[in-house]
Specification:
Blueprint lengths: L1 E8 L10 H12 L8 E4 L13 H14 L4 E7 L7 H6 L4 E9 L3 E2 L1 H14 L12 E5 L19 E7 L1 H9 L4 H30 L2 E6 L12 H9 L8 H14 L18 H9 L4 H8 L5 E8 L4 H18 L3 E8 L7 E2 L9 E2 L23
Parallel strand pairs: 1-2, 2-3, 3-4, 4-6, 7-8, 9-10
Antiparallel strand pairs: 1-7, 4-5, 6-10, 11-12
Helix pairs in contact: 1-6, 4-11, 5-6, 5-7, 6-8, 7-8
């Protein structure tokens, strides 16, 4: 198991310059427990709270990127925007390489924001043209019901209070090992619970010492079993060990529920999603099943109802209609509110690619796959009530 991220939540971009020592000591503390650290990241309060006008957000993004590089921090999330602030995300991402941002398209108290959905769909299309491979949308997310304090990007943002840090795990291999040693589903569940709790003890030990030494609050662990694109570190492979079938076949939803149930049952200080991540491009087996057409966007959305974090790193046709993107986002938002859970969407249209075309990114956390088909895209012009310009009547 690896630490995907030590995410530091800070109340202001002005606090970045003081994080150099914590960055070095945090990496060393977890690695001394046998837990390799892949990245250290920061998350700020939502960027609209840190600048006066949307046009100044680009300068903020550039300034934060410069500061994190000076102290050796890998990435920064500037949190979500709403309303007019969403449109500026394109320029923020185009001007930087290590900055993440997001939009809020649904919240429990206010419901689904159709205007924000349409703005976000437009931003996703524009961000897909920042580079020819569509990689920019790795740093853009749509948030539904996501509270502050989740350490995984692009969902991470701070509530503006005192500094804190949390851990995002890359732990799909724990499920693979637990299931390989099991003869029954119940034994598989118990083995996974024990593995999670065992590693959580190591994380808490290192985190507690850091919190004490640096007078910073430890906010918990997001044990979402994130994968890496190798079979033995694939959550897709873990699911197939349970079902005996390809991911996307009957039994997939039941396997997802079993895994998430084990995470729920394990005792550890949790934060963020603490669910099952099914990021297509980050998982070798999910990428393969998507390329084969066995695993669909609908399958991933169904699984999100019992386990997941939504639709993550989904390769889409470069010419996908903006209204189709909005429809996908609307589905995620509706599901998040209906089942009252945090979900996100990270959709990646790839310019010049059509459904079924091969996709290969020069990025160690991505597997090769094919562009996923979106049923109904472009078959008839948009015109339903959801696309009405009279959104607030």
């Amino acid at each position: 198991m690896n630490i995907r991220s030590i995410t530091i939540f800070i109340p202001s971009a002005n606090d970045i310059s003081s994080l150099g020592i914590f960055n070095r000591e945090a990496r060393a503390a977890f690695e001394s427990e046998g837990l390799p650290v892949q990245t250290v990241r920061i998350a700020t309060p939502p960027f609209p709270s840190m600048v006066e006008k949307p046009k100044f957000a680009v300068n903020l993004a550039r300034d934060v990127e410069t500061k994190i590089r000076e102290v050796g921090i890998d990435y920064a999330s500037l949190g979500p925007g709403t309303g007019a602030w969403i449109d500026g995300i394109t320029d923020m991402l185009a001007a930087t390489e290590t900055i993440f941002a997001s939009s809020i398209i649904a919240k429990g108290r206010t419901g689904i924001d159709l205007a924000a959905i349409r703005q976000t769909a437009a931003v996703i299309q524009r961000v897909s043209t920042i580079s020819p491979d569509g990689f920019g949308n790795l740093r853009m997310g749509a948030l539904c019901n996501v509270p502050p304090g989740a350490p995984f990007f692009p969902a991470a943002y701070h509530d503006g209070g005192s500094p804190a840090f949390a851990i995002a795990t890359e732990a799909a291999d724990l499920a693979v090992s637990a299931f390989e040693l099991s003869q029954t589903p119940e034994k598989a569940r118990r083995n996974l619970i024990r593995a999670i709790e065992s590693y959580a003890e190591k994380i808490v030990s290192a985190a507690g010492a850091l919190a004490h030494a640096h007078h910073i609050r430890f906010a918990g662990i997001d044990f979402s079993l994130a994968p890496f694109p190798r079979e033995m570190r694939s959550i897709g492979h873990a699911i197939e060990l349970l079902t005996g079938r390809a991911v996307g076949s009957p039994g997939t939803l039941a396997a997802a529920a079993l895994i998430t149930g084990a995470i729920d049952h394990a005792v550890f200080p949790g934060c963020g999603f603490c669910g099952l991540m099914l990021p297509v491009l980050e998982d070798a087996v999910l990428a393969q099943r998507a390329a084969e057409g066995v695993l669909t966007i609908g399958d991933l959305l169904h699984c999100s109802a019992v386990c997941g974090t939504g639709l993550d790193t989904i390769p889409l046709p470069g010419d996908i209609h903006e209204e189709t993107l909005a429809g996908i986002l609307h589905d995620v938002a509706a599901l998040a509110l209906r089942v009252d859970k945090p979900l996100t969407a990270r959709l990646m249209p790839i310019q010049g690619k059509a459904a079924g075309d091969a996709v290969n990114f020069d990025f160690p956390w991505f597997a090769g796959t094919r562009v996923m088909r979106v049923p109904g895209d472009g078959r008839k012009p948009p015109g339903g009530l959801f696309s009405s310009p009279f959104l607030h009547e």
